[in-house]
Amino acid sequence: MAFVDEIKEGEELLKVDNIYMNFGKVSALAGVSCSVKKGSIHSIIGPNGAGKTVMMNCINGLYHPQQGSIIYKGEKINHLKPHHRAKLGISRTFQKIELFSGMTVLDNIRLGRHIHLKSGILSAAVYLGKTAREEIEHRRFIEEEIIDLLEIEHIRDKTVGMLPYGLQKRVELGRALALDPELLILDEPLAGLNLEEVEDMARFIIDVNEEKRWGVTCVFVEHDMGVVMDLSDDVTVLNFGEMIASGTPEEVQTNPEVVKAYLGAEDMYASRR
Amino acid sequence: MAKGFLPCGTYHQDYAHDHAWWQTRFVKGKMIFLAIGLFLIIPHLDSYYVGIVNMIGYTILGALGVDLLIGFTGQITLGHAAFMAVGAYTSALMVLEFPWPKIFIHLGLAYPLSILCGAVLAGLWSVLFGLPSAKVKGFYLILTTMAAQFVTVDFIITQYVARIGGRGQAFSLPPGTIKIGPWIIDSPTKVYYLMIILVLLCIGMVANLLRSKPGRAWMAIRDNDIAAETLGINIIFYKLLSFFVAGFIAGIAGAFWISNLAAISPEHFPWSWSLWLVGVILIGGTGSIQGTIFGSMFMVLVMEALQIGILPLADIYPQLLEKFLFVKESTFGLAICAFLIFEPNGLSYRWWQIKNYFNLWPFSY
Ligand SMILES: Nc1ncnc2c1ncn2[C@@H]1O[C@H](COP(=O)(O)OP(=O)(O)OP(=O)(O)O)[C@@H](O)[C@H]1O
Ligand SMILES: [Mg+2]
To answer: CATH number for the domain including A62?
Structure first.
């Protein structure tokens, strides 16, 4: 496949082109489009049941839209499975945490390195030379790049299922970052966190987006308007599976359609700050 | 299962140390004792006891593959005996029928090579019956793996393979055919040495796989296949790899076991043996290599004890001896029920608790 290798800052990394997704009679997405620019934070907002999660599942390959295309680096990827898309640099977190809850934090993050481990099965079976070296190399990466960044040194050997919710969300972000992704899908990473945790998480997202080392493009689903307006470069608004607005945060905020869709749910989406 | 705790006051110096199997001097010391026990003491026991240990080793080899599938990959299998049969028959046929060049026979290479071929063939055969796992889960997979048992043992082997050479149902293995290098495997002690080498190799292989990429992928599929797939794990590939490795070890087990037999027949690989192996890992604790070992020891030793215990009673109730199979099977059923109710994490969990208690001593709170 002819993926464009180098996409420059500000050019289109991902394009969702007029996708339709129906579950039987329920139409979850109807003609949604958006264009995510490399290096940006692109927020997807909308009331409950608007189809945000369904859209993320389409981008990451868990669902396959019935119509329209998902274009990544200039190439249509509709037919690719999630594991294939992960290898192309698309990584994600889930709204409902999907960690391996019986494993330790370290093992969860190690699994995020899966696509970068190159040694073969025979080498793994004897665990000499290549595999042993590779394991140490990746352990160093995990410790120095991810555990340090997310400040989770103290829980690395803890079983994930035992951790408080806020830390689990953070571990899930760590696991998604371990893929060293180009595009990171964050499905409500702030939901259910307390104020302090929200601030930490927002800081991590800004870090991985802005730091040269990471430079990760983010697709960010969130209800908290305050955070959305602060963080995002672009915003797309969904309502009942339809796209009702898109543009810069300022444009979207003053769009009458958006105001209407959010009317009546005012307190629910009011900023926590 | 979570990592055990290191003894008080011990810390890791570097990542390599944290990744090692045996991390403290104490553990290394224990391993030396174990090695002395395995290589210097057991071989000199009475051959009756060595025979029991061989049975344990055979059970470990079988259960290891079952645990890999059920305990580590989450793919329930009820047809493992079929793959052991494939290994055993491949090996036996190669030793008996294959026109080996004289030099191979002379150097005793025929049997070792046949073990390898049996293992690979059993692995591929297992992949064939693992293919449905790409589409189906749980109950339906149980049925397809059961099909492996009936298709392989009851149909292909009984109807066709066992008739090769016109020997009738049982293949007899004349003394002297099972030869490795200069050694003819003809006594329980020699079988024991072969067994211990194969068991250690297989356990080492599985343990290494489990602490690297494939093993983590298996456990990820077991715990959450959707998350696994989004991390870039090719679920179908790793499921089939798990079937291959499990079948490979089953093939080794089957091919090894013919060294202990004077003849093999399809009756050595009944469906109940597949079921038995699942019982072994339930009792030992699924998803744990120690569990496989403890489970195998427990089951074999309990059955031996039962046999010995029943002999004196047989004078009073002669049926007990005649119906020993029933006694054995009901004990097996009771043991599994008891473990599922009272110790669902199996023997290995108890072991882990005891170990940690001593490691954290004297600050074990
Ligand atoms: N697998 C599915 N099968 C049937 N219907 C589905 C499925 N997934 C989502 N839907 C439907 O699609 C619609 C959009 O759901 P979605 O989860 O995308 O909403 P959302 O915007 O993420 O909402 P929230 O803010 O609550 O997370 C809902 O009506 C939902 O019931
Ligand atoms: Mg959602």
So the answer is: 3.40.50.300
